[in-house]
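I can't quite decide. Please look over this sequence plus structure tokens:

:::
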Amino acid sequence: MPDTMRAIRLTGPVAPNELTVSRVPVPDVGPGRVRIRVMAFGVNESEVTSRKGESGPDFSFPRIPGIEAVGDGVGLAPGQKVATMMGGLGRSIDGGYAQYTVVDAANAIPFDTDLGWDVLGALPEMLQTAHGSITTLGLQAGQYVLIRGGTSTVGLTAISIAHRLGATVLATTRNPARFELLTQVGADHALLDDDTLTDAVRGLVPGGLDAALELVAATALPATLSLVRPGGTVCFVGALNGEWTIPDFSPFSIPTGVRLTSYAGGADDLPADALGRYLRAIEDGSLKVVIADTYEGLDKVAQAQHDLESGHRPGKHVVVLAGT
């Protein structure tokens, strides 16, 4: 084990082109912890926010960012592959933008697959969030679910998971050019997220939806709630437009009998057996993973964050360290 490693370490807010690689000590491993030799990681919006210095109080400088990683578990069975995400990674503890990272053993999820690191690096955070939110909905075969924000990485993954469950999936985008992408990953109906959405959903499901995932905005919740039948559930997962709260919110604006919940879970919501099932599904093509681009080496993180911010290509931006 070397004494130092290559990493991107932030000491304050920087521009994308200032995400430079430096040498830092390899992190120590304490009791109940696992060191991971990072082979790949996805680049996420929250890391862009952290780089700008706009994160919440759980983030502090100096910090190695990166809320997820996949790699080899050092000190585990030889060749054991592990995934990790959340649990303060890249926010309250140093994260995945490095050759090595150390996490709680409970947050190191073992897996076995022949899939490439370029695919595996895309999975931890978006798969955990999509799986956790669909599970929170209690979605079942034969039900109707709306996924607002369908072309986000979590949205695309949730569409594919819901499709595999046997649900009828309605998914939204603000860009009609991305309708085909939504149907390719499993949406039965691709809908434009504008002022025609309410009528479109009611025309398709006049009795009301069984479930909905809200990824666009907290302020979109009243409209989404109005489309769900009594006994159905809406799960708030994220706010792609940055609107995380509803001004002057009244609980009485929730339609009678409709359930409103949220999902903000962690690694323990994606146990090893669930991850294994998803990996098999990706291998056989029944679960679709959309990757926008891959980048080789930590030196390309700046480009990856720039491309993510541009929003030109849907899907996950993945940095691969294996072989670099």
Q: What stands out?
A: The mean pLDDT is 95.
